[in-house]
Specification:
The structure holds two protein chains of two kinds. Chain A is an all-alpha fold. Chain A has a single domain, classed as MetI-like (MetI-like fold, Orthogonal Bundle), CATH 1.10.3720.10. Chain A has 13 helices and two strands; from the N terminus they run H-E-E-H-H-H-H-H-H-H-H-H-H-H-H. Chain A has a two-stranded antiparallel ribbon with strand order 1-2. The model of chain A has no long low-confidence stretch (mean pLDDT 90). Chain B is mainly α. Chain B folds into two domains: 55 residues, no CATH class; 167 residues, Orthogonal Bundle (MetI-like fold). Chain B is 75% helix and 0% strand. In chain B, helix 1 crosses helix 14 and helix 4 packs across helix 11. The chains are: A mainly alpha, B mainly alpha. Chains A and B meet through helix 1, helix 3, helix 4, helix 5 and helix 6 of A and helix 1, helix 2, helix 4, helix 5 and helix 6 of B.
């Protein structure tokens, strides 16, 4: 019987590397960031205690509030159309026999695979300058006021960031929602059709409530990712999110405060507040979406 | 009426497909025209300046070096993810561990951690360990890849029969040998899926190499792309060429593995 005990030991040995690496690369940075949020440090000179100074500073930091607003706005203008597009596509794919369905789905998902940094640069090139492809196209179409100075407009630049994110993510969301739909018991539909329900009715009354878990998953993962968005806006214009910081997200602000201004203490505080914002938003949307359906 | 509806649906689907593809098409077209032509008139079909743009790009940027760096990192990342992911999963799936449930829920919770928000701490950790400007910070975290563990635990539970493991034990096989000779081969399709998905994630990773790597010879593809605007200023042909080189390998891989990738997407969180 010596086997049983040594076997259990092997179980621990197998999971040990995960936890060692998780402690070092996952937990330690979090603890260190929390610690730094109470310090003042440029990374070179000795660290000094700052008490709550960083936290007070944050409360009065208009730029931080501005970046948080940008982040939320860019996320919402991306996310709502993204879920709507995905729902419409999922409805079409699940209710109709579409020729080439998997080819369509494969195409919609493609932008999600491509390096976000490349996509930021690409859309910069397509829209920047009077000779850019977008302006050439508008001129060719006979738009009078073209060429536009697109990246001089904060509103347009923000919208373009949202558009790129929508473009990168609607296919992914479609795949996830369709997976939720395929897990529904088909007999539920049959019953509804026998009762004379139309396709649209079935989708709204049966499918939607049953994919609630999926929608919650999509929303929360999108909040977590969207509130940290960095690659696309940073490469669309620059890391300051110009024009006029219109697309400077909170993650970009953390980067700039830390690695450009060397205010590592303050950058840590901003990180933690952004973490709290993400936690609260995720929690609220979870509660809201749970309650909506009773 | 029904017919018209169907046609409209197809029109909608095709327009969306074009929306998804056209930017990539424009990359290819613009990468094949001289910089001056790109900005002077609209180009909708490929030109003949591929080679010139390539030469202009290579004059200031060793893009293939960045390619090789990214490849080295991503392959190492994926090997560690596959190996340690299935090892951790084996531990959770087939051994009675005291506190196993709590430990497993820690794994689940770590999936929800917004990792980018501890980037400052991550930077100083690697500074202390002397790992700045090395690839270790980009590779080693693969050992603690929670979503791989989550997915593979489920898979090992359902596809590796307990009887098979018992049988191997009776024949005197050690636990490590069982892991290598029985578990890994049985779940290799799942490992493959996990590897493909994580390859893409690692390949596209931007913020971590941005803060860790400062030596330009060690730049990864995304970092090279992000600094390129400052190098070429208005040589659009060269920049489009760089984007093309960063995009095409992924599209080619996707053409062969799209089934794995799309099916793999739903492994993460949806039951």
């Amino acid at each position: 019987m010596k086997g049983k005990k040594s076997q259990a030991v092997w179980g621990y040995i197998f999971i040990l590397p995960f936890f060692i690496v998780f402690l070092i690369f996952g937990i330690y940075p979090i603890i260190y960031t929390v610690m730094l949020s109470f310090k003042s440090w440029d990374g070179f000179r000795p660290m000094t205690d700052a008490g709550l100074a960083n936290w007070y500073r944050l409360l009065e930091d208009d730029v931080f509030i501005h970046t948080l607003g940008n982040t939320l706005l860019i996320w919402i203008v991306d996310f709502i159309p993204q879920v709507l597009t995905a729902l419409v596509l999922a409805m079409i794919f699940s209710q109709m026999k579409i020729k080439g369905m998997s080819a369509f789905r494969m195409t919609y998902y493609l932008p999600n695979l491509i390096t976000a940094a490349s996509m930021g640069l690409l859309f910069n090139l397509l829209f920047n300058g009077s000779g850019s492809t977008a302006n050439q196209l508008l001129c060719a179409l006979g738009v009078d006021s073209a060429p536009f100075d697109f990246f001089n407009s904060p509103a347009f630049t923000r919208f373009l960031s949202s558009y790129i994110l929508w473009w990168m993510w609607f296919g992914y969301t479609t795949v996830i929602i369709m997976a939720g739909i395929t897990s529904i018991d088909p007999s539920l539909y049959e019953a509804a059709y026998i009762d004379g329900a139309g396709k649209m009715q079935v989708f709204v009354k049966i499918t939607m409530p049953l994919i609630r878990e999926t929608l919650i998953y999509v929303t929360i993962t999108s909040i977590i990712g969207g509130m940290q968005i960095f690659d696309v806006p940073a490469n669309l214009t620059n890391v300051n999110g110009d024009p006029q910081r219109a697309i400077m997200t909170s993650s970009m602000y953390i980067y700039v405060q830390g690695f450009n201004n060397y205010s590592f203490g303050y950058a840590s505080t901003v990180s933690l507040v952004l973490f709290l914002v993400i936690a609260v938003l995720s929690f609220l949307s979870f509660k809201l979406m749970r309650r909506n359906e009773a | 009426m029904m017919r018209l509806g169907r046609i409209l649906v197809y029109v909608f689907l095709i327009i969306l497909a074009l929306v998804a593809i056209v930017p990539f098409y424009l990359v290819m077209v613009n990468a094949s025209w001289p910089a001056f032509d790109i900005v002077s008139s609209l180009k909708l079909f490929p030109g003949a300046a591929f080679a010139d743009n390539y030469r202009a790009l290579m004059a200031h940027t060793d893009i293939w070096r960045g390619f090789a760096n990214s490849l080295l990192i991503s392959v190492s990342y994926v090997v560690l993810t596959g190996y340690f992911g299935s090892m951790t999963a084996f531990g959770f799936a087939k051994y009675r561990l005291k506190g196993g449930r709590i430990l497993f829920s820690i794994v689940l919770m770590s999936m929800m951690l917004p990792s980018q928000l501890s980037i400052i701490g991550f930077y100083f950790l690697n500074l202390r360990l002397g790992l700045l400007n090395t690839y270790w910070p980009l590779i080693l975290p693969a050992i603690a890849n929670a979503s791989a563990v989550f997915f593979l635990t489920g898979m090992i539970k359902t596809t590796v029969p307990d009887a098979l493991i018992e049988c191997a034990r009776l024949e005197g096989a050690g636990e490590l040998r069982i892991f290598h000779k029985i578990v890994i081969p049985l779940v290799s399709p799942g490992i493959a899926t996990i590897c493909i998905l994580n390859f893409v994630t690692s390949w596209n990773n931007y913020m971590t190499p941005l803060i860790i790597i400062s030596d330009s010879r060690k730049y990864t593809m995304p970092i090279l792309i992000s600094v390129i605007k400052g190098v070429y200023l208005s040589n659009y042909g060269a920049m489009y060429m760089a984007i093309l080189i960063s995009v095409v390998p992924i599209i080619i891989v996707y053409c062969f593995l799209s089934k794995y990738i799309i099916n793999g997407l739903t492994l993460g969180g949806v039951k």
